[in-house]
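Researcher: Last one for today. Full complex below.
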Amino acid sequence: MLRKASPYLFALPAVLVFAFTILVPIVMTFAFSFYDWNGYGEMRFIGLDNYDRALHDRIYLSSYTHIFIYIAATVVLEVLVGLGLAGLITMGRKGSSLFRVALFTPVMLPMIVVSFLWRFVYNSDFGLINTVLRAVGLDSWTQVWLGNPDTALLAICFVSGWVYAGFYMTIFYSGIQRISKDVYESAYLDGAHEGHIFFRIKVPMIRGLVKTGIMLCVLTGFQSFDLFYVMTNGGPYNSTEIVPTYLVKVVFSHMSTGYGSALAVILTLVIAALGLLANKLGRKGDALEY
Amino acid sequence: MASLPTDLNHRLTSFDQGLTSAKRRKWRSHTLYYLVMVAISCGTFYPLIWLLLSSFRENRDIFMAPFALPEQLNFHNWAEAWRIGNMSTYAKNSVLVTSVTLICILLFASLAAFALSKLKFRGSGLLMLLFAFGLFMPLQSFFIAQSYIFEQLHLKDSYMGLILPYTGVGLPLAIFLLKAYLDSIPKDLMEAARMDGCGDFTLFSRIVLPLLMPSLATVGIFSALNTWNELLLAMLYIQTDALKTIPVGLLAFSSRYMTDYKLLFSALALITLPMIVVYVFFHRYIVAGLTEGAIK
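Model: Here's the assembly. Have a good evening.
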């Protein structure tokens, strides 16, 4: 009897915690999204009105534009830069493992520390960037980097790249390390130089890993919150508003729990669709490799 | 030498020249390589060094000359930030929440991974599907209702209010990694133990858990750092200052002392330094833990 129940007993604690903290809230969020509700008062069923309102919410729609710009920029600044760095540290030069360990350091820092630190770096009065620009006589280039709608989003993307380029570099580094030495040796004998080896051998051999990296970058991009919240909190003029920062405002400042739930459901569906799409594309790509 | 044909002589000297120019080219490419790498590293580290240097200075000096070096290593700012900022409370809370969360994730996930990988039972496929679903769900898809539930159950403003969701968020990935590892262990080992009369629980504690140790380290590093750095839920669920973790504590501190730059710089340095020290000593495990945790 106990024997039969034991698998369930083993799985029980994990299932309980997971169900209580994640599954039930997801279902409830879905249910909330059909109500006009402020979180504590009376709930009024309004069908799909919240969704209709979401599709006409200019700020909400533009937050998707911002997140897609952010994701496109971080794919370049994190994944592609990381790939380039991985190429550099696998050239077999002495001391490259030191660079590898050093460039990973920002990943260790809490995002909140990174956000504050870069708020200072971008500070218009004593920030590093403006000080350097003034020092070299480019006064006209100085900006209120995070206060200008044209530069704020890109400034945040750059910080994200500063943190995660080293992370993707490390992932690709471990992939490149696994390539057999024979492949390089024959290439060197054929007189190939480093640039060739990078584009013709290293990158093609870790194509699968690069794809995984891009997918990871896209999916985690939707989850970013800390950087945006601390550096600009959506401003100036909503130019850096992303779904998570907007959700927090809608639900916890404007107390529109029902409407916020609808926004959350839409985001979840978008991410699920992208996940499925990536999964499908990934499978197709893998099938071609063999 | 004179007997050598001039042609060969000529060829020898050009061979010699070719060698030195190859050497020179190699030397040039090495120099260029190190110049580029050092430039990249400086670019990465300069903001951190600037943070550290500024934390020793006075507000006026930070404003006047951002790049200048501090006149002396003045730890007065640090002491003040630690005291005014309530840092010891925040640090204690972070240690407590992170360690309990970590224990829960590792224990619950290894139990579940064992059941899903080595014991056959009805509904295991469905469970895997649910956890796979959990892997992709962002925080935003559940935090609104979670906040409501926690409010109703009076879990807000308590350690449990953070430990529970952090465990729930960490479980799916932990279960996946541990199950993948257990799947690669041959069944024979388990069968042999069973023949010797091991029950499921003895099998788990005596054989599976020791085998899992290396994977538990990977999962542990990954989960611990995620928990340590989490901001959104901690910000929404904890209002009492005495219960705040480091990220929310820092947020509160910064809103109170937004213009006291030397204190903010000091607080940031105080939080950053221990992490860098940990990283320097355990970088091998941390790098492996974070990258493996992310890819799979």
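Strands of chain A lie at 35-36, 44-45. The first strand of chain A starts at residue 35 and ends at 36.
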